[in-house]
Write the structure tokens for this entry.
Amino acid sequence: MIGEIAAGLAAAERIAVTERLLRHPKLDATGGSFERLSQNLSQIPREDRGHFFPLLASAMIGARGRPGIELARAVLRRNTDLLSRGTRAECEDLMEALGDRAAVPLPAVEPSPLTVYDICAGNATWGENEGGEEAEEDFLPPEPVQRKPTPGRNDPCWCGSGKKYKNCHMRDDQTGAGAPNNDDAPG
């Protein structure tokens, strides 16, 4: 299914498909979808091709290993006239740099059994920390800073002077010079 529509997608859509193929390698066991993503590049603006193609080449290598390098080289040769010299050089550098690492298989990542709903509802249970126990408070986000509401014109001023806000700090607050100083505080 993905391979059938891949050649007609815009650059951003092709990047999204590439990301899905990397996350779910079983969707493209042969690498055919990656190859189809490289077709009809003339539909994509040249600048976008320069961003998309190196990403596609590295995804091919990351997903397929050594066969991915050969696939990336073939796709690069086929699209040479559509890519800038800089993009071609970047792809060659990527293939060379990733070539040594392509022999090392990527570890399989198991999807988490927890959903975002489980986590937000507090139903998630976490395993022990390998580095030792840490206080639960360390993982809580800090309390958000909340701005005190600005008093109304005729309300008492926030500084506690007893004056109406309009006669005390309203002008300073509106110009950004509203920081309290010791002269304004009631004594």
Observations:
- The mean pLDDT is 77.
- Residues 2-103 form one domain.
- The radius of gyration is 29 Å.
- The CA atoms of residues 25 and 108 lie 10 Å apart.
